[in-house]
Amino acid sequence: MVEEAGAEARVVKRPADLDGLAGIVLPGGESTTIGMLMTEYGLREPLARGDLPCFGTCAGMILMAGALEGGHGEPPWLSVMDITVARNAYGRQRESFEADLEVKGIGAVRGVFIRAPYVTRVGPGVEVLASDAEGHAVVVRQGRHLAAAFHPEMARDSRLHRAFLAGLAAPAAVAAGGGGAG
């Protein structure tokens, strides 16, 4: 999706792979596993500084959150956005669904929600770009960070990726996560 949106994509596995990046996409997948791997491979600390713009989809949103709702015994991983996120907010895998959303500045977007989170609290510097039918924030922006509760790549829609790239100073290379769908 990053390449379709007009930027070079490369996989990041080690901290040295972050050198020269304009931003990073944190994909969907299993947030606890991704967080543990980020820690094991030394990526958590440099990403938690927040100076590299992040676009998180689904689990990526969970990784970026400043707080997690509902316990799970898991501390926030990166805390780069002033949001609280509820994991698996819509239920289990069988409750996964698709919905049309109106995203501010983009238009109608098809959201593919797979064991998806949603935002339960936004801080003063966070802009809500889209909400679900019940009013829960599902696309948010804070500075150069962007997060979506769903998988835009599953609908083959690169417009959110393009919006992320448009917010970068020099989108020459963007890391396009490893291990997830996004």
Task: Explain this structure.
The protein is an alpha/beta fold and 182 residues long. The chain has a domain at 53-173: Rossmann fold (3-Layer(aba) Sandwich), CATH 3.40.50. The N and C termini lie close together (8 Å). It has four helices and twelve strands; from the N terminus they run E-E-H-H-E-H-E-E-E-E-E-E-E-E-H-E. The mean pLDDT is 89. It has a seven-stranded mixed beta sheet. It has a three-stranded mixed beta sheet with strand order 4-5-8. Strands 6-7 form a two-stranded antiparallel ribbon.
Overall spatial form = globular
How many beta strands in the DSSP annotation?
12
Structural class comes to alpha/beta
Q: Provide the helix percentage.
A: 10-25%
Rg of Cα set: 15 Å
Largest sheet: 7 strands, mixed
Distance between the termini: 8 Å
CATH topology of the domain at 53-173: Rossmann fold
Helices and strands, in N-to-C order?
EEHHEHEEEEEEEEHE
CATH H-level homologous superfamily name of the domain at 53-173: Class I glutamine amidotransferase (GATase) domain
So what's the oligomer here? single chain
Strand arrangement, largest sheet? Answer: 1-12-2-3-11-10-9
Runs in which pLDDT lies below 50 for 5 or more consecutive residues are none
| Mean of pLDDT | 89
Question: In the CATH classification, which architecture of the domain at 53-173 applies?
Answer: 3-Layer(aba) Sandwich
Beta fraction of the residues?
25-35%
Q: What is the overall number of helices?
A: 4
Reading off the top of the CATH hierarchy, the class of the domain at 53-173 is best stated as: Alpha Beta
